[in-house]
Amino acid sequence: MIDVISSIKRGWLNAIRHIDFPLLLITMAIMAIGLATVHSATLDANERMLSQAGNMGVAMVIMWVVARIPPQKLMNFAIPLYVVGLILLVAVFLFGIKVNGAKRWLSIGFTRIQPSEIMKIAMPLMLAWYFHKFEATLKLRHYLVAALLLLIPFTLIAKQPDLGTALLVGAVGFYVLFLAGLPWKIIVGLLTVAGAAAPLLWGMLHDYQRKRVMTLIDPSTDPLGAGYHIIQATIAIGSGGSFGKGYLNGTQTHLEFIPERHTDFIFAVYSEEWGLLGNALLLFLYTLLIGRGMMISAAAVTPFSRLLAGAITLGFFTYAFINMGMVSGILPVVGVPLPFMSYGGTALVTLFLGIGILMSIETHRMMVKK
Amino acid sequence: MSDFHNPDADIPRFRFRLGFTAALVLLGFGILFGRFVWLQIIQHDFYRTRAEDNRIALIPIVPNRGVITDRNGVVMARNYSAFTLEITPSQVDDLEASINTLSELIDIQPKDRKRFKRLMDEAKNFESIPIRTRLTDREVAKFAAQRYRFPGFEVKARLFRQYPLGHTASHAVGYIGRITDRDLKWIEESEAQANYKGTDHIGKTGLEQRYEFELHGQTGYEEVEIDAGGRAVRSLKRIPPVSGNNLQLTLDVKLQEITEKAFGERKGSVVAIEPATGGILALVSNPTYDPNMFVDGITPENWKELNEHPSKPMINRAINGAYPPGSTFKPFMALAALEMGKRTPHQAISDPGYFTFGNHTFRDDKKGGHGIVDMHKSIVHSCDTYYYVLANDMGIDNIAKFMAQLGFGQRTGVDLGKDDSSESKGVLPSQAWKKQRFKKPEQQKWYAGETISIGIGQGYNAYTPIQLAQATAVLANNGVMFRPHLVRNIVDAKTGEKRLIEPEPLRDLKLKPQNIDVIRRAMVGVNTEGTGTRAFAGAGYQAAGKTGTAQVFSLKGGQYKESAIKKELRDHALFIAYAPAEDPKIALAVLVENGGFGAQSAAPIARMVLDYYLLGKYPKGAAVEDSAALEADEHE
């Protein structure tokens, strides 16, 4: 009997061996808020919340699996995943399904996949592996090669066109470069060039993308068109005040003024009902999440682990910052979900892959030390 | 970890960089927090108001419908403003009870309730629907004091269409009514949906329908903020509507009234045209109806009565009634014979009083015949035999070919109804027509014997009064044909700018002047020495005319005795005329259903029209005398 209990206990301990509890608790807290907000945003379609809970379960299983893989093994995935991701992106470019004028999806028989999503993980994995490999002999040309590895998928995604995802993938890749020690001279130089090239870049943007930037500057120019999202979301946030209108009481939400309430604009729903206090709480939770990620990164023992953990963590920040920035009207509207809050399975799986990797890095380090 | 490089050497740099990004994270979240403070604390009041007043509504402002006047500026259709009490059903909990309470305050008739129910069934989404129209000031005041008791009830000032002349010229002006599904389709086809937001009436017949998109005007908009109760809080922007264009007609209302009065209880039609332009001076279809009945939504009882009345007042006989022209066809036959070289004016026949074709005898209406008859005499005395022979000589297809040029059996294109198909074509018989008209092969064949009675305007011949008037106008106008039309100018309500509906000739028949002259002299003869003499005795002008009597009832060779035949089966009386003969100012066709002889009942009406139009003479005594004479005729 005691044997049974102790073997169950051992099994349990083994199962949770690679779980990082601070990380788990923080993400679960954010997800709990997210679920409640999805419920408020989709009162008339309650199956949304249930299916989101299902998504979370699946994503957490994936997290659990990934967390058990030691970082050394993860390195082996770097090149294959990157190459597969690249091939799929080319496939999208060639045979992708066009939805709303953008080719982002690839049909694989029973379902559709969005290969750009794979790149969100494959990119930092690949670059972290690359810098790990050449760490000892790092020269300028290595940065150039890394930049190339970054730019190819970035361009393919930007061409779909999906500027939001391209920027995210690009950002995550750049974080690896930066953390790996990309010289300041080059960073400053790049920023200068970017500043100078901005007008040129402006010319390369699609009309709808330009419109988004223009409506950001003055949403009232197009109150019923592109500016509608921004105006209504801003009204929702502003009318929430210090303590919010109360859960399920958001008028902007429930009179359906907020577009894409349960996905990209979920923050407006949350913010309207919970006010500044709620926002502060959410920002605090994200800060905790990022802080924990940075701790893991700082403590990691190999360059690969450090870079990967740092880039993934900064990726979380980037998602959160861009989403909340766009919903509150200080960034253009790009299709970026709010991490662990927005409805959607694909994004959750990607996010928990990241969490799983962080946990793997953290827990395997401790085991090495033991 | 295959390298020999000491990774720990890089750790301080890495940690510095990580710290740097941590600072960026804090900065980024700091910016967001600052933004939230700005929105949720500093700007909170502004956004709270915005959220509360969020719903911005565009309220359409319906333009004033164009006014219709006659050629002298007499108003035939106009708008007046009146208060209506309207209910938005979606805002009322217990409709029945609320209306009952309201009826203690304001007089609400069962018919008002009925109409409200009907409109509610037809209405879309959240429109407000009138329960009472034309409230008195007293009623408005009463309601205003008690308004709080009636959420969802509202007094609105609305423009109503009014036809001040009532029955007069209603077949020309037409009427407007509430927009139905069929009208919606029309609006969609015309791609005018946006402009009809807020409009609930539309032209249903006549000019009101034909010129709908001229009369309607441009809808304006008011952008308003709406509170939770659905009431407008404040106006943000107002784009005023542009009134519809006014129509100035070619019609002379006085002439129209006189003509309609001349009909009395009789059924029939008169179309009078200005030959030089095609402008219609009078368009009568008797009986008429009062278009004002339709504006508020006609009651089912009235609708039933109008539609089921045996005299069919809703039918516009001028354009939709097809009648055999009878002897009024003869001048056109004679002209055809001259133009096609089938007769010379002096070529004469000896009329025994009948014409035999095969084993069938066609009778002249004068027993024993007219003796020696040339073309002039054939018209003046309306000799049938002459035209039996002529029709036989010409053949049906030659007749049809010439008559088609004169517009017989074809739509004139008069500007009434939704489009040209609102007008009837009538029947211009020909071999091709018969083949198409009938299904069985034995019926499809044209028999030569059928041509004979075509010559005197009987048989399959069936034309609308407006076709007959148009053909007469062509005679008067030396062979140049115009499209008959009722609108002379379209007047911009704002600038007063007039758009002339150009009287452009449809075609020139290139008739030989000497031929026209023969016909004219003969038609003048009708009124001086022939069948129209009595009616035109003492006229101060020379009028060219022709009487006609069209059989409704086949006599099968028997004697026609008016008094022995039921009134509905009596012959139709016709008269065509133009005057002054040398310089025609007016051409017309008169049809009196079951009026008997054209000379007796139709010609006097033509005389009245001409007297008024040419001499300005009102038919005061004349009208009385005429109806007395008619009485006498009927009792003969």
CATH class of the largest domain in chain B: Alpha Beta
The overall pLDDT average of chain B reads: 86
Spans of at least 5 consecutive residues with low confidence of chain B: 1-5, 555-559, 622-636
**Largest interface, C-beta within 8 A:** A-B, 45 and 36 residues
Radius of gyration from the alpha-carbon trace of chain A, in angstroms: 21 Å
Helix content of chain A: over 70%
Main beta-sheet annotation of chain A: 3 strands, antiparallel
From the helix content, strand content and strand pairing of chain A, which structural class follows? mainly alpha
What structural class do the secondary elements of chain B suggest? alpha+beta
- Domain count of chain B: 2
| First-residue to last-residue Cα separation of chain A | 31 Å
Bin the helical content of chain B. Answer: 25-40%
What count of structural domains of chain A?
2
Q: List the secondary-structure elements of chain A in sequence, H or E.
A: HHHHEEEHHHHHHHHHH
**Mind telling me the C-alpha Rg of chain B?**
35 Å
Which fold name corresponds to the CATH topology of the largest domain in chain B? Beta-lactamase
Oligomeric state of the chains? Answer: heterodimer
Descriptive notes:
Chain A folds into 2 domains: 21-68 and 208-370, no CATH class; 75-204. Helices cover 73% and strands 4% of the residues of chain A. The two termini of chain A are 31 Å apart. In chain A, a hairpin with a 2-residue loop joins β1 and β2 (102-108). Chain A is mostly helical. Chain A is globular and about 55 Å long. Chain A has a 3-stranded antiparallel sheet. In chain A, α5 (115-133) packs parallel to α14. With 636 residues, chain B is an alpha+beta fold. Chain B folds into 2 domains: 58-249, Penicillin-binding protein 2a (Domain 2) (Alpha-Beta Complex), CATH 3.90.1310.10; 264-285 and 322-480 and 500-631, DD-peptidase/beta-lactamase superfamily (Beta-lactamase), CATH 3.40.710.10. Helix content of chain B is 38%, strand content 20%. Chain B contains 25 helices and 23 strands. In chain B, strands 2, 3, 4, 5, 10, 18 and 19 form a 7-stranded mixed sheet that branches. In chain B, strands 12-11-23-22-21 form a 5-stranded antiparallel sheet, sandwiched between helices. Chain B has a 3-stranded antiparallel sheet with strand order 1-8-9, with no helix packed on it. In chain B, a hairpin with a 6-residue loop joins β11 and β12. In chain B, α10 packs antiparallel against α24 and α16 packs across α20. Classes of the chains: A mainly alpha (370), B alpha+beta (636). At the A-B interface, α7, α10, α12 and α13 of A face α1 and α2 of B.
